[in-house]
Design brief:
Blueprint: H1 9-34, H2 44-65, H3 75-118, H4 126-129, H5 133-140, H6 159-181, H7 183-203, H8 218-228, H9 237-249, H10 259-277, H11 282-291, H12 294-301, H13 303-325, H14 330-373, H15 376-380
Amino acid sequence: MDIRQVDIRRVACLDGLRGLAALWVLFGHLVILTGFRLPVLSKPDLGVDLFILLSGFLMVFQYRLRADVEDWRAPGTWAAFWTRRFFRLAPLFYVALAVALLAGPALYADRVAIDGFLGEPLQPRERFADASLANIAAHLSFVFGLLPDYAFRTPLPDWSLGLEMQFYAAFPFLVLLARRIGWVPAALVAAGAALGLAVLAHRLGLDFPMPAFLPLKLHLFLSGMLLAADPGPGRGRIGVHLAVAMLLALMPVGGDHDLLHILVRELLVLGFFALVHLRSLGAVDGIARLLGGRAFHWLGELSYGAYLIHLLILYPVAAAVIARFGTGLGAAGRFALTGAIVVPATYALAFLAYRLVELPGQRLGKAVIARITGSRTRARQTLPEEIAAP
C-alpha cells in the first residue's frame, strides 16, 4: 500500500476524531463535576486514549509522507521534527499554564466547593496552587511527566502533554528501530521494554497519580503507529498489524483495566482501523465522510484549545451552579445548565486561542525550522500540513 495514493479524506476524518476525543474529555469532566452519570462518556481517560492512538498514527503517517525528503538518519531531521512538535504544543500550553497558576487558588476553592457538595474526597491544595519555581520549571521544560511529584500539579489536564512530549522524544528512535527490524518486531520490543520500565518504576516507589510516564502508555502509541505503518507486500500483513495493535491495547499498564475500559479500547482500535483501511465499506465511508466534513474539521482544529482550556471554565461555572441551585436542580439539571455555559464558552475561547496563539506559534516554528534546515524546508513545505494531537 502506497500511502501517497491514499485518499486525503483518510486524514480529514481524523480531524473529526480529534474533535470527538476533546469533546469526550470535556463531557467526561462535566459529568464528574456535576454528579451526573453517563456510561462510557463519564470516562475522560478513554478520550485521552483516543488522542494517544491518533498521535501514534499521525506521527507514522507523516513520517511516510515525508520519507522522500527527510533522512531520518540525519540529526537535522530529528531537530526539525522536535522543533515542529514543540511549537505545536508549547505556545498555547504556556499561555494556559500562566492563567492556571495565577487562578490556582480560586480554582481550588471552586473544586473544594464541588467536591464538598458531591461528597467526594478533597483534592490536595498543591494540585491547584503550586506556583513554586520548581513546579514552573518542570512544566516549562516539559519534564514534569517524568516526575511523580509534578506530573499532576496544575489545574490543567496537562499530564498528557508531558506524556506526548516524551513520545516525541522517543519517536525517532522507534523509527530507526522499525527500519532495522520491521514495524511489528519493533513495536513488540518497545512494548516489552516499556513494560519492564513500568514495573521497575513501581518497585522503586515511583507511582504516578496519572499515567504521565511514557512506559505506562507507550503500548497505545504503538497501536496507533502500527495502523499507519507500511505492512509490506501481502494482503494479510495489515491484518497482522491490526492483531498486534489490539494485543498491545490489552497491556495491563497505564490506567484502569476493568472490562469496560478493555472493551472500549479494543473497539477504539477496531473502529480506527476501519476508518483508515476499510473505506470501501459503504457505512464506514459514510462515517469517514461525516468526520471529514467542515463542521468536524473545525471541531478538530479547536480540539487542542478545548482540551487545555475547558477545566479553567468548568470549575468556576460548576461551583457557581451548585452555589446557586444546590440540590434543587438535580444532577441532570446541573449537567445541562453547566454544559450549556461551558461548551460554547470553551470553544469560543479555543477559537480565539487558535487564531491568536496556535497559528502564530506554528508559523514561528516553521521559521525556526527554516533556519535549522535551510533549503530542505522548502521541499518539505510542499507536503500536506500536519494534523496534530492532542
